Amino acid sequence: MLLVTKAQRRDAGYSAFVDRVVRHMKLHYWADVGHLPPEVLWRRVSHCVEKGRERGFTYERSLAIFTANMMRIDPKFHEQKNIAALLDDADRPEEERLEGLVKEISPDDWAEAGEMCADKQDYWWSVDRQMADPATRSKP
């Protein structure tokens, strides 16, 4: 009999989740991600999901939106002062925090968020190198 460990089930679930977010990105944001090789897109999405989890997001929809914002706006968009304050507000449910991104964040804040990362290409290359090395990759 083949036994599947809890860690293997968790890892398989995580992989399937990242696959769904990758499909979402390809379907809705092809212009932004269509040029990326599949393994690079997968690693970048996985990185974004980890960053979203660090901000307290747990729902698939929330993590997909967070990922899209990281990949389309700026990989450090969530560090903009007002966006960070909104995302870190633990007294609000995550759906409400996501809604706040649309309703409460000003166009000027979004413009600033789009410039948080001085060198986006270098950021993503760093992620690509780190995520490609299993020794440095964090666990799901």
Could you walk me through the main structural features you see in this protein, from its secondary elements to its overall organization?
This protein is 67% helix and 0% strand. With 140 residues, it is an all-alpha fold. The protein contains eight helices and no strands. It has one domain. Helix 1 (6-28) crosses helix 3, helix 1 crosses helix 4 and helix 3 packs across helix 4 (60-72). The relative contact order is 0.12. It is globular and about 35 Å long. It has helices at residues 6-28, 30-33, 38-54, 60-72, 81-87, 94-103, 107-113, 120-132.
Mean pLDDT: 89
Low-confidence segments, ≥5 residues, pLDDT <50?
none
- CA distance, first residue to last residue: 27 Å
Work out the strand percent: under 5%
- The total domain count is 1
Order of helices and strands: HHHHHHHH
Tell me roughly what share of residues is in helical segments.
55-70%
Please work out how many helical segments DSSP would assign.
8
Give the tally of β-strands: 0
Task: Describe the sheet with the most strands.
Answer: none
Overall outline: globular
Supply Rg.
Answer: 16 Å
SS class: mainly alpha
Defining key terms:
140 residues, mainly alpha, 8 helices, 67% helix
Give me a quick take on this structure:
Helix content is 67%, strand content 0%.
Question: Secondary-structure map with pairings?
Answer:
Elements: H1 6-28, H2 30-33, H3 38-54, H4 60-72, H5 81-87, H6 94-103, H7 107-113, H8 120-132
